[in-house]
Design a protein that fits this description.
Strand order of the largest sheet of chain B: 1-2
Oligomer: heterodimer
Structural class of chain A: mainly alpha
Strand content of chain A: under 5%
Largest interface: A-B, 87 and 81 residues
Shape of chain B: globular
Number of helices of chain A: 12
Order of helices and strands of chain A: HHHEHHHHHHHHH
Shape of chain A: globular
Number of domains of chain A: 1
Number of helices of chain B: 22
Structural class of chain B: mainly alpha
């Protein structure tokens, strides 16, 4: 049992994921700054931000169901720690614990559900609009994302165990090497961009338009939970793609560790560059894009995977 | 006879109904409650016992096997919980009639679950269909149209079932449904198969026989909606489907694929309709259709995990959907409107009802660790397993079914977010500022259903799978069937530990201040309130969905409408023939004579 608590709280769970997530967050801010010809924040800026938020007071809305408002970020935070642990165990150790890929898909939804319920409980109109948009983002990227996940499942002989998908790739070469794999991988990057709520798919939070939407009424430690959960998603979403398409990583030699980190960082930098070179899309064009372009493309990948290409 | 449990389970509620005809209201309630508790106790005894039977005139009428015991048990559990809800706050206009019908429903549904004899089965099946109509009529004249629609669709399916059973009897010379095995070889056997399939679909509410469910949900008394279309009709319809898909017929893979495709279509079409509803009851009604798709899909896969998943989803659906209908019923009783635009912010006013609705909504959307997730998870695995054993073409088809099923689950979540937002969250309209929580029995029954959702989810392998589902397929462990894996111990520890961590951090750092919510500099007013009803306007105005929704609103996809059009046309034809002119009749008589003569001559 102690072993599992170590996984959950230390590595690859809470401590590792939050520290690493905050560092990736710094990379994001730094790269964005360089793209925009700014200097960017110091290395520990994200840590300062979180610690500062922990010291601030929480403002609750009078006459609102604030129990939900308080519990929502805590549950989201917990679910993200769990997801990071499950995905991280496969990424670093090549084993699947707790649940399979289908379970992880549903576990990932808890973050969005909590965000939406927490935001809706306030009664603020901007929060409500943001919550609605967040939900629409979920239904738009979910279709393409499932299709993307189906490609490695089919390649690995209908296995939904992350460890078996990794084992399949160790024997038969990486899935990204096949035609279906590369198409699905590209669509997958766009999907996790939307799941993270990064530009061009940050419509739900749109600071300049609806003032951070769902997060509008949050303050203090509760806001810190959301920020931390968001940065932890930076850790496990690219990892999931690496596991499914790119053979994960192993501690076998220094070279393989570097290769694993390299694959992960490549996806992160790609996401940051997409973020910095695109304008925000309207919510209806986001749905349109995912349902009419990304999903059919991913469906082609699925059909190719079934044929065996 | 009077010491046979199976006989008593069916007869006790009927006796209660007969006595109820002559006694005052309060005794009526107590008597119904006593009868339902008694049948529940008996059905638990039947469930734990070995096979039982009851015969009359030398033939077996009732017989139990694992599947029928399972259905029987849940019919009675759900009836009792819903009855507790109905003890108070049923509209007084029809309260006394309601209790008469209630115990009859329990009796007839038990009868369907227990009948092994074809004739008994069709009799109880038809009677339980009739009760839908009678319940609907309680709210007449508002509900007259929709109950008639329900009656005609269910009645038609009863006729189809009768026809199918007669054909089956001709083919097999058996009247015992448990022993029949009919291979699909002749045209006649295919006709029988599809007749029975349509009957099961009409009862459960799957495409193309689904259209009565949302309309009935909109108009009928909400307690009866929670009882019949949401809970018991699902149990019975899926029971028949499970019987025919695993036992009654032997069929090629293409038939299995057709059933699976119909299941996947049911999921996606109904949930797309639910997404745009403005009436809370209708929204829930469409979900009562959509969820049937998972059961049909799961049972259609034909492998153990799929069948377990389908049956599990049936029970889960009955639990959370009746809970959702009841909680929305409580809201409607307190506020007087089912229109989502007019509601809002009731979570503070009706916290217990809100908790029940929240658990129901999370369960139906398949959020772990609630029960809905696990049944869907099993269904998905069943579908993938079926796909893995087929050639490329079927693989593509079945994978598309899989995708539609998972995507349908995301859309379910979306429409329940809208439901929760519009009813319980967002801002409270001023006119509801003195709304009170519903009475004890109502929220108690509601939370009981919520507790079942949690128990069936958290203890999934220890309770529902082990006690109820594995005996049906006669297996000892579920591990051998699973494609993936789920370790409830690790996951629950993880959930508990990580949320505890969050709570500790929160408690260490919390400093709280209360304030109003602001837009700009001013506290928000009722004018700037987002109800949530408009959340998915982007979807409904998007091509090609805008056209499809327009057609759906004109009822182009409604089998009832086309049935009405056809029968009116037929009536018109006959009407024209009855012109009252003598020579028209003379021609028809002559034509008839000619036909008869030809037949007689050809017989010689």
């Amino acid at each position: 049992m102690l072993k599992y608590l170590f996984y959950l709280f230390v590595f690859p769970g809470f401590l590792f994921a939050s520290a690493f997530g905050l560092i990736v967050g710094w990379i994001e801010r730094k790269v964005s700054a360089r793209v925009q010809f700014r200097v960017g924040p110091p290395f520990f800026q994200n840590f300062y931000d979180v610690f500062k938020l922990w010291g601030k007071e929480i403002i609750l809305i009078r006459n609102s169901p604030y129990f939900l408002f308080i519990i929502a970020p805590i549950i989201a935070f917990g679910s993200v720690i769990m997801t990071t642990t499950l995905v991280g165990m496969s990424f670093f150790y090549g084993v699947g614990i707790g649940g399979d890929l289908l379970f992880i898909i549903y576990l990932m939804v808890i973050y969005s559900v909590s965000l939406i319920l927490g935001a809706s409980s306030t009664g603020n109109v901007y929060s409500s609009i943001g919550a609605g948009r967040e939900m629409k983002m979920v239904i738009s990227d979910e279709l393409a994302f499932i299709l993307v996940l189906l490609v490695p499942i089919i390649h690995a002989g209908y296995s939904i165990d992350l460890a078996k998908i990794l084992a399949y790739q160790a024997d038969n070469g990486m899935i990204i090497g096949s035609a279906s794999g590369i198409i699905a991988f590209i669509v997958g990057i766009i999907c996790i961009q939307a799941k993270m709520g990064l530009v061009p798919f940050d419509t739900a939070e749109a600071e300049t338009e609806i003032v951070e939407g769902p997060l509008m009424e949050y303050s203090g430690p509760l806001l810190a939970f959301w920020k931390l959960a968001h940065y932890m998603m930076y850790v496990f979403l690219p990892m999931l793609l690496v596991i499914l398409f790119w053979g994960g990583m192993s501690f076998a030699s220094f070279g393989s560790i570097m290769a694993g980190i390299g694959k992960y960082l490549l996806i992160v930098v790609l996401m940051i560059l997409i973020r910095n070179t695109n304008p925000r899309v309207r919510i209806d064009s986001a749905i349109n894009f995912f349902w009419k372009w990304a999903s059919p493309l991913a469906l082609i990948a699925v059909i190719l995977a079934i044929i065996g290409v | 006879m009077w010491n046979n449990y199976l006989f008593l389970i069916v007869v006790i509620p009927i006796i209660a109904t007969i006595i109820n005809l002559f006694v005052p209201k309060i005794i009526k309630k107590l008597l119904t409650l006593a009868a339902v508790i008694w049948t529940l106790v008996l059905s638990i005894k039947v469930f734990t016992a070995e096979t039982m039977s009851f015969g009359l005139f030398g033939t077996n009428i009732f017989l139990t096997d694992q599947l029928s015991k399972f259905i029987l048990l849940f019919v009675n559990i759900l009836s009792l919980i819903i009855l507790i809800y109905c003890l108070k706050n049923v509209k007084s206009d029809y309260e006394s009639k309601f209790f008469l019908l209630f115990s009859l429903t329990v009796s007839f549904c038990n009868g369907v679950a227990l009948s092994s004899n074809m004739i008994a089965f069709i009799v109880f099946w038809g009677l339980s269909g009739l009760l839908v109509y009678l319940f609907g009529l309680l709210n007449a004249p508002k509900s007259a149209d929709s109950s008639r629609k329900a009656f005609i669709i269910i009645g038609t399916s009863d006729v189809l079932l009768l026809f199918g059973l007669v054909v089956m009897y001709v083919l097999s010379k058996h009247t015992n449904l448990y022993l029949m095995r009919i291979p699909l070889t002749s045209v006649l056997s295919y006709i029988a198969f599809f007749c029975v399939l349509l009957a099961a679909f009409a009862k459960a509410g799957a495409i193309p026989m689904h259209t009565w469910v949302p309309d009935f949900a909109k108009d009928a008394p909400i307690e009866s909606v929670a009882l019949l279309p949401a809970a018991l009709d699902k149990l019975l319809g899926i029971y028949l489907l499970a019987r025919m898909m695993s036992g009654l017929f032997e069929y090629p893979f293409a038939i299995r694929a057709i059933v699976m495709i119909l299941g996947a279509l049911t999921i996606i079409v109904a949930v797309m309709m639910a997404l745009i509803q403005h009436n809370g009851r209708k929204l829930l009604g469409y979900h009562a259709v959509s969820q049937v798709g998972y059961m049909v899909l799961g049972i259609g896969t034909g492998n153990p995990i799929g069948i377990i998943g389908g049956l599990f989803h049936m029970v889960n659906h009955a639990i959370y959907k009746s809970s959702l209908f009841l909680s929305f019923g409580s809201v409607e009783k307190r506020t007087g409107t089912p229109e989502l635009e007019k509601l809002g912010g009731l979570a503070r006013k009706m916290p217990l009802t809100f908790v029940a609705a929240l658990i129901g909504a999370l369960s139906i959307s398949g959020i772990p660790p609630f029960n809905g997730f696990f049944s869907k998870w099993m269904v998905y695995q069943g579908v993938l397993m079926t796909a893995s054993k087929q050639g490329a073409t079927w693989q593509i088809v079945i994978n598309i079914c899989f995708i539609l099923a998972i995507f349908g689950s995301a859309l379910t979540l979306a429409s329940f977010i809208k439901f929760l937002h519009a009813t319980f969250l967002s801002k409270l309209p001023k006119k509801f500022s003195d709304v009170k929580e519903i009475s004890f029995n109502n929220w108690f029954a509601n939370l009981l259903l919520g507790a079942l959702c949690v128990i069936f989810g958290v203890l999934v392998f220890a309770v529902p799978v082990k006690w109820f589902l594995l005996p049906i397929i006669g297996a000892g462990s579920i591990k051998t069937f699973l494609l993936g894996f789920y370790s409830s111990k690790i996951i629950l520890y993880f959930f508990a530990a990580s949320i505890l961590l969050g709570l500790i951090i929160y408690l260490i750092f919390k400093r709280i201040r209360f304030d109003d919510e602001y837009v700009g500099t001013y506290p928000t007013t009722e004018q700037n309130r987002a109800t949530g009803v408009e959340f998915y306007n982007e979807v409904s105005s998007m091509r090609p969905f805008n056209k499809i929704y327009e057609w759906a609103n004109k009822k182009y996809f409604d089998i009832y409408k086309w049935g009405t059009v056809f029968s009116l046309w037929l009536g018109d034809v006959f009407h024209k023939l009855h012109s009252g002119l003598l020579h028209t009749y003379a021609i028809w008589t002559l034509a008839g004579l000619v036909v008869v003569t030809i037949i007689l001559l050809s017989a010689i």
